[in-house]
Amino acid sequence: MNSTDLADLMEELGAKARAASSGRAARTIRGGHEHALRETVIALRAEHELAEHEAPHEATLQVLRGRVRLVAGADAWEGKSGDHLTIPPQRHSLFAIEDSVVLLTVSNDMR
After folding, report:
1. 99, pLDDT greater than 90
2. Beta strands in 34-97 (DSSP E)
3. Helices and strands per DSSP (H, E), number in the chain
4. Residue 37, pLDDT above cutoff 70
5. What is the reported pTM?
6. CA-CA distances (angstroms) from residue 110 to 58, 97, 103?
7. Quick check: helix, strand or coil at residue 11?
8. What's phi and psi for 18, nearest 5 deg?
9. Residue-wise over 9-44: b if at least 16 C-beta within 10 A, else e?
10. Which of 82, 41, 43, 73 is nearest to 55 (CA)?
11. Under a CB-based contact definition with an 8 Å cutoff, are residues 15 and 36 in contact?
């Protein structure tokens, strides 16, 4: 059984995001071709974003720390620590309203 200390990882990635010119840092904590799910912890510095990109499979986003805005087409959602969202299957972007850390879970299922 594998275990990840999310509190420590959030601190580590938050520090890396603050130091990075891109304002972000990430680590996949579970995934690969042998798994049905890929889970990635992403830290975003305030006022930085993951630019618009495709959502090829089912995905969810859990806000672990901070506040973020997910935009998909004409729809937008603002989430805070503890919120969970199913990401719509269309192009979307993620913007950090304040320093934030999220857990992105993506299905590798190609049905």
Report:
1. yes
2. 37-44, 49-53, 59-65, 67-72, 75-80, 84-87, 92-96
3. 1, 9
4. yes
5. 0.91
6. 10, 33, 21
7. helix
8. -65, -30
9. bbeebbeebeeeeebbbbeeeeeeeeeeebbebbbb
10. 73
11. no
C-alpha distances out from residue 63 to 6, 25, 43, 102, Å? 12, 15, 10, 4
Q: Is 9 helix (H, G, I), strand (E, B) or coil?
A: helix
User: How far apart are the C-alpha atoms of 34 and 19, rounded to whole Å?
Assistant: 33
Retrieve residue 27's tokens. 């680590």
For residue range 48-78, what is the model confidence (pLDDT) as tens digits?
999 988 877 889 999 999 999 999 989 999 9
Q: Which residues pair with 95 in a beta bridge?
A: 49, 69
CA distance 10 to 65: 8
